[in-house]
Amino acid sequence: MKATEVPAIAGAYLFEPTPYADERGFFCRTFDADVVRSVGLDPDAFVQDSLSRSVRGVLRGLHLRSGAGEAKLVRCSYGRIFDVVVDLRPDSPTYRGRAFFELSGETQATLYIPAGCAHGFQALTGTADTSYRIDRPHDPAEDVTIAFDDPELAIPWPLPVASMSQRDREAPSLAEVLKSKES
């Protein structure tokens, strides 16, 4: 497994496993505490694992947490997703930077997203399972959502949106979210 820094988002990493394939399929390690530790992250900090299943065109996000934020490891375990990270940490050298990835069950790559970054994705295949490893328990009172189609972010979502939650449909703009954080 190798870890690569994400230049557009300070502190973000892409972890790419080495799959062993044969006539049965493949096997790979999707989490390695030593590799995570080698880039300065605490592998024991993650306290919750979650899974979402989406169908083609479903869009989830852009989400982040207020307060201390939430760091997470995200992996598409089946299918393919278009994954988006937006750096919203005011003190970060990559503040407002954006990064886009295609994560898939074929590669099993895992993306580390630092606390204070917004995250969202769109399913590109008939079924896409997305796994999350999160560094603190979820508190719905800290949920923040930003409009997926905010013109300031200009995210190039690859497909028309087939479905999304009401919360995501009604999300405020980035400017509104940032203004509310100031007050």
UniProtKB/TrEMBL annotation:
InterPro entries: RmlC-like (IPR000888), RmlC-like_jellyroll (IPR014710), RmlC_Cupin_sf (IPR011051). Pfam families: dTDP_sugar_isom. It comes from the Bacteria. SUPFAM superfamilies: RmlC-like cupins. Residues 164-183 are annotated as: Disordered. Belongs to the dTDP-4-dehydrorhamnose 3,5-epimerase family. PANTHER family: DTDP-6-DEOXY-D-GLUCOSE-3,5 EPIMERASE, THYMIDINE DIPHOSPHO-4-KETO-RHAMNOSE 3,5-EPIMERASE. This is dTDP-4-dehydrorhamnose 3,5-epimerase family protein. It comes from Streptomyces galilaeus. The lineage of its organism: Bacteria, Bacillati, Actinomycetota, Actinomycetes, Kitasatosporales.
